[in-house]
Amino acid sequence: MGRLNSSARAALQPVAEPHRDCGICARLVAYRNKTRQAHPDWFNGAVPSFGDDKGRMVIVGLAPGVSGANRTGRPFTGDYAGDLLYATLAEMGMVTGSYKATTDDGLRLVDCLITNAVRCVPPENKPTSEEINGCRPHLAARLSAMPNLSVIFALGRIAHENTLKALGAKLSAHPFSHGPVHKIDRIHLVDSYHCSRYNTNTGRLTVEMFRSAMSIAAALRVRQE
Ligand code: URA
Question: Ligand 1 within 6 A of 59 CB?
């Protein structure tokens, strides 16, 4: 390959926050266009990470819900899963303001940032392997752009595995389950079952289990000071 000029080189660099109209995944673009036609007033784009990019903790979710984060443009905002996530963050003292499921609720995250393994809404909440792989460079760039990162709290297996791959760690050395702490170089990775309606309705994840896993992550963040 010939030498690239600086704008061509920049275009090849994965960015922490993809363009709202990211075009990497054809199926997700088609779904976004369909949703945009039906709901032109919704956000309908790659949902940017939310929170403190100098924070020590990152929460990695799965992907925006169609009428939640895809509608509002903020991770977990307006999604059923957000009620439990933001309430638990508030209990840990990791927010200021109150979560009201809208982007103008004035909520701020303290020492923490929320992102998703896949930034665009997938049909039926199910991204394909290709889409998960296609979005990983953004997750990797997001993590490496956080100078104080010490703890990652992964919600569900897809977030766990995409995070391991983004960090260059072996999946076989770090199997997913609820609650364990994995050490990857200087980063602690703590897993939880995803705080989805399905998991809480079926009892796979209780409020207490979620609180307990998040408090492990929050405490590790404190210990690294
Ligand atoms: N909303 C998000 O932004 N991410 C999830 O994983 C679930 C709901």
Answer: no
User: How many angstroms is it from 148 CA to the middle of ligand 1?
Assistant: 24
Indicate the CATH number of 6-222 among 3.30.70.1560, 3.40.470.10, 3.10.450.50, 3.30.360.10. Answer: 3.40.470.10
User: Atom 1 (ligand 1): residue with closest C-alpha?
Assistant: 76
Q: Distance, CA 117 to ligand 1 centroid (Å)?
A: 9
Q: Where does residue 138 fall: left (phi above 0), alpha (psi -120 to 50 degrees), or beta otherwise? A: alpha
pLDDT tens digits in sequence order for the chain, 225 residues long: 345 566 555 556 789 999 999 999 999 999 999 999 999 999 999 999 999 999 999 999 999 999 999 999 999 999 999 999 999 999 999 999 999 999 999 999 999 999 999 999 999 999 999 999 999 999 999 999 999 999 999 999 999 999 999 999 999 999 999 999 999 999 999 999 999 999 999 999 999 999 999 999 999 985 554
What is the 115 CA–ligand 1 centroid distance (Å)? 9
The pTM for the full model equals 0.94
Task: Identify which of 118, 100, 159 has the alpha carbon closest to the alpha carbon of residue 32.
Answer: 118
Take residue 116 and report the two structure tokens written for it.
């998703």
